[in-house]
Predict the 3D structure of the following.
Amino acid sequence: MTRPGQRPTTPGRLLALLHRRGTITRAEATAHLGTARSAMGEAVAELAGLGLVRVGAEATSPQRDSAGRGRTSPTLDLAEDGPVSVAVHFHPSGADLAVIGLGGFTASLEQIPVAWRHEDLESSLQQVAQRIRAAVTRSGRICVGVGVGVAGVVSGDGRTVLSALYLGWTEVPLAEILETFLPDGLRVSIHNDAALTALAEFRRGAGRGASTLLVLSCEHTGIGGALVSGHGSTEGLRHTLEAGHLVLDLYGPPCPCGQRGCLELYCDGRALVKATGHDHPDAPSGSRAIILRARDGEPDAHRAVRDVANRLGTGLASLVNVLGPDRVVLAGILGDYLALAADDLQAHLHASIVARLHQTTLTSAALDRPVLLGAAEHLFEPLLADPVQEMRNAAFPGG
């Protein structure tokens, strides 16, 4: 996360441009950032000296000289051995771990099966920490930190999971526990997984170019949400939303949150399994099998998808009326609902006058493992604001 009062420097703006757009000529970068050629030259030299940017061969730039000829300019690209972040996604069946470099390039990816037993939580987290340490060491690169996504309510300082209903966690000092088993200097930050999904889709996926983006996500259990707004590549606002606990029916079934009739009770993967009359709704494989059968045209499966999609549409229209996004992205199994029942969901959306006024569009998520990508984006923010200062403070915990 960008540190309080931290404004992007010219080297930071250039690094952020390469991080989000990839290879570019120096002339293009100068024009895009609106900087003087001398300032750009200094920024390139600083970033190259820090091992963050590689200066390549001369290429013809789209920029034209006074005679209309293409101007040659050296290409700029991210260094292949630059800093990395470690991103971890905790979910009911374990954890996913990735080492991700600038540009969103994944250096390694692994799945960690973990049984989240409350009485044995510390030893489970020690197991995850050992895998984090090993992944950083294998990368052989500077690590800017560890970002963890979890479906739950996280403290404002990103250190404690206040509540994660479907992991059975309450007031878990997750960052502190993990850091106990990690090298000194390797900091851990915790985030709501839906917020990380929203950040990733806003920066790199289906939310690119949106002014105000609403993301709803569901892997199987529960529904998360987040709102991101801003212009260009800098967000002005990020809000995590407990969208799954929007009440649809005051007299509906009880929810673990303490209310009745919450949105996720009617729309998540468990609800889809129940809509077909099958048992064992908590198994993620059940909802995935129903989606596959619906794609194959099985009437009962498709009917179940349409049923939960219409419930989702009711909640979605209410959220749009309150939040006024110009784009909505549905991630995970919710994106499958959109693919299979688009007309139903669009009808609910178009019933909202706010959606009509804002010309709100509805689309499926575009990224694979967006929680991991979002965690990396968040961790890289200080580096992208002031790479010179951040590299001075950087350490290689795996060394």
